[in-house]
Amino acid sequence: MSTAPTLVEEARDRSDRTRRRLRLAGLVVAGYLVAFAVWEFASSTLFNPYVLPGPVAVLGTTWELFVSGAALFHFGASIGKIALGFTFATLIGAPIGVAMGRSPYWRSFFHDPMMVAGNVPGLTYAVFGLVLFGISDVGPVVAVTLVAMPYVALNVCEGVEGVDPHLLELSAVYERPFGAVVRHVLVPSVAPFAFAAVRYGFAMAWKVGALTEVFGGASGIGFQIKHAYQEFSVTGVLAWTAVFVLAMVLIEKVVLARLEARFFSWRGDV
Amino acid sequence: MTTVQTHSPPTTGSPDHAIRPRRALPRWLTSPLAARLTSYVAGLLLWQLVATIFDRFPAPLEITSFLVGEVAEGHLVSNFAVTLNRFGQGMLIAVVIGVILGILIGSYRGAEAFLNDINVVGLAIPAVIWALLATMWFGFGDRAPIVTVILSAVPFVTVNVAQGVRAIDPRLGHMSAAFGVPASRRLRHLTLPAIAGYVFAAIRFAVMSGWNGILLSEWFGATSGVGWRARYWYDANRMPGFLAWVVFFIVFMLLVDRGGLGAIAKRSFRWRDGDAAGTTDIVTERV
Is the pTM higher than 0.80? Predict the structure, then answer.
């Protein structure tokens, strides 16, 4: 009957797909290998291992950082500051975003300041942090707050604009208390946008946090990078960079992506 | 229920609820332009306030006079010229490399598998690390800033161009293949026109990230340029001098973004978005 050929076709299809996937996986591995080969070649032939240490030396040092627990400790210090900064950014940015979403006046009022705050070169925040707060962990937190705030405000503003006016009208007609309107209408429609702010603001915050730590931090990955730089240890800088990149990619692609999928599974689409 | 809830905030959905001035303020005070000006005045006042609280933070007036002094002595023009020269060279190389890589990643599955992860790593590395590494590699001079600009800008160009290539209607590609259009003509008449807008958008991001990179690189590893000059005043413990340069950086950034690149990027997307679109800010777009 007609089912037999489809099954065969399906099986062939599946084996085709596995083969294609295998080939792509092979290319991914080849990409890494070629990158490491180029790196090794540059290290041993173009420069010398002191100026540009090879991948084995760098990854070995990275491994030691993980084993000794230093990587985890400073990662914790960095991520803690970023979390704190994001909390402040949300506390300040969300009300601004609501105001911007609900009134054209406040939108014009806050538009340019948010533009500037989001686009100021990181160097500025880093040096200000150092000048105003000295060598401490306050500077990075303030810098992260200032960088993340425009993301939160602009995304919340977009979310508030997208709130279905019919739902608000309905709530008014049925005289729902303000708290209930916030809880059941505003928060659910703004939440995806707020989450987008975290998702896309994170990369920015992570980088500016590290930059501020390089200049005036007292702990964290950026602080360690600066330490290695002052000892003129290229291996150290590269090893900490590897820790930094691993942490960032892991958080972005695994943690945040998972959270997003979980948070918004009720929506079904997208 | 109590009566308190009856005067809950005006959550009616009528679009004019926000435009209506609540306390009958005159129209000229509530217009968007007035709001914008008010925000500038408020910003200046806030700055003045911070300057009074923190002794080390200079007031707006001090900075203006300092900037005028730098211009009068010719430091601004000479250092800016040096920086622009490095920046221009770096950006040019970065755009060429980024467009090539982007087209490869966007067109071929294999190239994507091969290069994508490397590009992700490139996107994740902040400019300050490139600045430090370039300083250690090349010492003081022109090479470290140029290399920093290239390394911090290429991943942004690549990722945007790749997105543009992926957005090309695959049926156009199939048709070109069916009619045996050679690859060079396909590139010239299909790929390049389709990605032009993305390239400009990419350049816009690359400029933001490259400008940040060159400032850091000149701060750590140069003896000329605007970043070095800012550091010069910082090392001399003259905060007005440092801040005057920061104001200059920001104004330059905004002018480039508002005046030049933003308009070009919007214009080159016009065929797709229509005239009304394209008003979103760069902050929300930077992924």
Answer: no
